[in-house]
Design brief:
mainly alpha
Length: about 110
C-alpha cells in the first residue's frame, strides 16, 4: 500500500495541494502548486550601513577608533569608517551578528 504513495508522492502532493487551494487554504509563499520554486524575497532593507542598529554602530565606531589610536591597527578602511559614522538608520535593522562572515556560510560559496 505504501509503495504507490512513495513512487507517486509528487503527484499525490500536487493533487492534495489543488484540493486545499479549492478550499481557500493558503499556498506556501514562493512555491507553485506544481512545486516550481520562484522565491523573490524583498524585505525592503537598505544597504549594510543603514541597517546596523544605533548602539551597534556606536560600538563599532568607538572600537575602530580605539584600534587606530591605541593599537595602531585598522579593521576597516577609511571609506567604510566614514559610512559607518555618517549613515542614517533605517526602520529595519540587521538582527544577527554584525561581524557575520558570509563567506563561511556554505550556501554562498561558489
Amino acid at each position: 500500500m505504501f509503495l504507490p504513495i512513495i513512487i507517486l508522492f509528487r503527484e499525490y502532493t500536487v493533487v492534495l495541494r489543488k484540493i486545499a487551494n479549492c478550499f481557500g487554504l493558503k499556498q506556501m509563499k514562493g512555491i507553485s502548486i506544481d512545486w516550481k520554486i520562484d522565491v523573490s524575497i524583498n524585505e525592503e532593507l537598505g544597504n549594510y550601513w543603514n541597517c546596523i542598529p544605533g548602539m551597534s554602530q556606536l560600538s563599532l565606531c568607538v572600537q575602530e577608533n580605539y584600534y587606530r589610536k591605541h593599537l595602531k591597527i585598522q579593521t576597516m578602511n577609511d571609506n567604510s569608517l566614514e559610512k559607518l559614522r555618517t549613515s542614517q538608520r533605517n526602520k529595519k535593522f540587521i538582527s544577527n551578528e554584525m561581524n557575520y562572515d558570509i563567506l563561511e556560510n556554505n550556501r554562498y560559496v561558489d
